[in-house]
Amino acid sequence: MLIEDNLIVEFKKVSKIYPPNIPALKDISFVITRGEFVFLTGPSGAGKTTLLKLLFRAETPSDGEIWVDGIEVSSISRGQLPFLRRKIGVVFQDFKLLQDRSVLENVGLSLEIMGYGKKQIEKRVKQILNAVGLKGKENVCVAQLSGGEQQRVSIARAVINRPSILLADEPTGNLDKQRTKEVIELLEELNAMGTTIILATHDESLFKNTHRRVLFLKNGRMEA
Ligand SMILES: Nc1ncnc2c1ncn2[C@@H]1O[C@H](COP(=O)(O)OP(=O)(O)O)[C@@H](O)[C@H]1O
Ligand SMILES: [Mg+2]
C-alpha cells in the first residue's frame, strides 16, 4: 500500500491516435514516484508533448489508463477537470503569458479565478516571485522582460497553486545557455521543495550529467 501511495503518475498500456489515423503514442506503460524529477526525451515528433497533454487532459488517450495523484484522468467528468488541473502546473517553451499585462496579473490570474481577494493574491504572488528570483517585479509589464525572466514568470504562474506535479514542455527551448542553466536550477529547487517534475526536452545537454531518470520516446514507443 505504501508503495502504491508513493506513485504519483502511472501510465497503463496507453496509446494515442490522432484523427484521422496518426499514431502518436503506442502501448506506453511507466510509473513516476512522488517527488521524482524525470526527463522525458526523444527526437521531434516522438510523442513527448502528446504524453504531457494526456496528463492534464488537453488530449484524451485512445486506449489505456492514466493515473495522476489518485485520479484516472480519462474517466473523470468535465466538472472534475478543475480538480485535476489544480494538481498540475504546466510550463511551455513559448511561455504563453499575457504580454500586455503585469507580472502580478499573469501570476495571480488563477487565484483571481478561484475567488481570492486582492490582498491575498498580492501577498502570495510576492512570495512566489521571491522564490523564482523576480523580487520587486510584480508591476512590470511582461513584454518588458527578457526571455529568461518571462520563463520565470511562467514557472511562478504554474506553481502558485502549489501543484503536486509540474510539467515542463521544452521550457528552455527559447533560452540561451546561461538562462537555460538558471531555469533548470529553479526547477531543481522546486523539486527539492517536494514538487514532482516531468521535463520534456529533445536537448540532451540538459540531462547528460544528471543522476535523474530519463524516459526515452521514439516513434511513439518508450524505450527501456
Ligand atoms: N493535434 C494533432 N493532430 C494530429 N497529429 C498530431 C497532433 N499533435 C501531434 N501530432 C503528431 O503526433 C506525433 C507526436 O507529436 P508530439 O507529441 O508533438 O511530439 P514531440 O513533442 O516529441 O515533438 C507527431 O507525428 C505529430 O505530428
Ligand atoms: Mg513537443
Description:
The protein is globular. By secondary structure, the chain is α/β, with parallel strands linked by helices. The model has no long low-confidence stretch (mean pLDDT 95). It has one domain (2-223): P-loop containing nucleotide triphosphate hydrolases (Rossmann fold). The protein has helices at residues 2-5, 48-55, 81-85, 103-113, 118-131, 147-159, 177-192, and strands spanning 7-18, 22-33, 37-41, 63-68, 71-72, 88-92, 165-169, 196-200, 213-218, 221-223. The protein is built from seven helices and ten strands. Helix 6 (147-159) runs parallel beside helix 7. Strands 6-7-8-3-9-10 form a six-stranded mixed beta sheet, sandwiched between helices. Helices cover 32% and strands 27% of the residues. The structure holds adenosine-5'-diphosphate (ADP) and magnesium ion.
Judged by helices, strands and strand pairing, the structural class is alpha/beta
pLDDT averaged over residues: 95
CATH topology: Rossmann fold
Give the ordered list of helices and strands: HEEEHEEHEHHHEHEEE
Tell the overall outline. Answer: globular
Count up the domains: 1
Number of helices: 7
- Assigned CATH architecture: 3-Layer(aba) Sandwich
- Rounded radius of gyration (Å): 17 Å
Oligomer category? single chain
* Weakly predicted, low-confidence segments: none
Distance linking N and C termini: 26 Å
Strand order of the largest sheet: 6-7-8-3-9-10
User: What's the count of strands?
Assistant: 10
CATH superfamily: P-loop containing nucleotide triphosphate hydrolases
Please bin the fraction of helical residues. Answer: 25-40%
Which CATH first-tier class would you pick?
Alpha Beta
Percentage of β-strand residues? 25-35%
